Write the structure tokens for this entry.
Amino acid sequence: MKSFRKELWFNIPQRRGFENITREVSDCVRESGVTEGLVLVNAMHITASVFINDDESGLHHDYEKWLEELAPHEPISRYRHNNTGEDNGDAHLKRQIMGREVVVAISSGALDLGPWEQVFYGEFDGRRRKRVLVKVIGE
Amino acid sequence: MKSFRKELWFNIPQRRGFENITREVSDCVRESGVTEGLVLVNAMHITASVFINDDESGLHHDYEKWLEELAPHEPISRYRHNNTGEDNGDAHLKRQIMGREVVVAISSGALDLGPWEQVFYGEFDGRRRKRVLVKVIGE
Amino acid sequence: MKSFRKELWFNIPQRRGFENITREVSDCVRESGVTEGLVLVNAMHITASVFINDDESGLHHDYEKWLEELAPHEPISRYRHNNTGEDNGDAHLKRQIMGREVVVAISSGALDLGPWEQVFYGEFDGRRRKRVLVKVIGE
């Protein structure tokens, strides 16, 4: 069995944003030499997500608006977590909707994705360096 | 290490619906010959889900009603994604709540599920052929 | 390839609660002898979750309040599932938001978690014995 590990670093300049990381994940799979296996891609931070959906700017606008309706950033006092001095209570909730991780099959040496599937880093408390873990296992 | 890959195809006649695919996934595990490992089951489409819950029609009605409250299909104009000519903006949101994938343990050659756990395909933009990927790795 | 399987049992005295299980999962990884691989941790019940987030009591209060807003326990008659004689319709919905499972990388013989990542059992229909499956594969 082969395994491979890499951290991808991000610094999203706004509080929230989505970044397509499909190519970086695909590069990890190639570098791993694994042709049949699984790749786990997970946010290493608890106010960020890794998810799979469409690379379409209208949809990303819809996600932003919808998550803000489901778990508004303000008022800050809405969240008891913010009593710790943080202002990111909402980010911990938004991340549960969008998920922490994805697991993708590796077949014939490549990411085994459907035609519109793209892997995204979802940031809900940005403006600082944060990272994603890519772990590949297989043969 | 062994690996196995199969696509399951669906054509749900309504816009939305849930289909129990536990037997199909179980058949894949048997066919793979893997006795200890993991099976990944994921929607290959970004307006569909694979999830695990109860096979109870009242619950499925509750999911349908609840998801429609959280991300209503109409008005179509509610979602900027629909400006692309699509009418499935809501389906991309509903799928994030229900999830893209499940990973299930394989132990002693069978799906290692709790007593009420059943695997479902969740369709949110049906009336066309769509597919699920089953990927098994292990020994 | 090595594999390892263990069930963790819980009996949360209230209907809902969160319990940090990071140490138990970490012990499984050590016991497995796997140094590079993946660990799947999943609820074996469909009214419970395994998720990763912060071990901060204010945040757990926020989750409790937020989930109760998104899928209220009462009135019981709100959920058709409860016509079966159950009163846990809400628990099946809350669990979809928080998720069934996490997959965590194992690197150099340890859980490969970010600095604040902690693994939790999330109970939404407690006051009885329920269990979580830990499955490790790797080398």
